[in-house]
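Input sequence (109 aa), recorded before submission:
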Amino acid sequence: MDYFKQQQILACTSSQLLQHLGVKMKELRVNANITQRELAEKTGIAEMTVTNMERGKNISLSTFLIILRALNEMDAIYKLCFEPLPDDPLLIWEMQRKKIKNKRLRVRK
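Predicted structure, token format:
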């Protein structure tokens, strides 16, 4: 991801990101030529949940994954989970710093 895109994402609130994801998920559904009702039936989730997701409302991560799987879009999760580390040394350093910062510390006697 280039620096400009990263800065755009960092500047967004969680609500704005949910709105953006909702729009993208609707695009995926429409491109697959599936109605909200059909997607709900295919996944076993409520049609209102599909509607809420597309409107940028908060849904569970498991529901999000179920919908991605039904739309044959699990490659997005692959990219999220398994994409190689960035080439930028500053970003790598920042990721390592956060990892060390979050590491659980114990007192030993």
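Checked by second reader. The CA atoms of residues 42 and 52 lie 17 Å apart.
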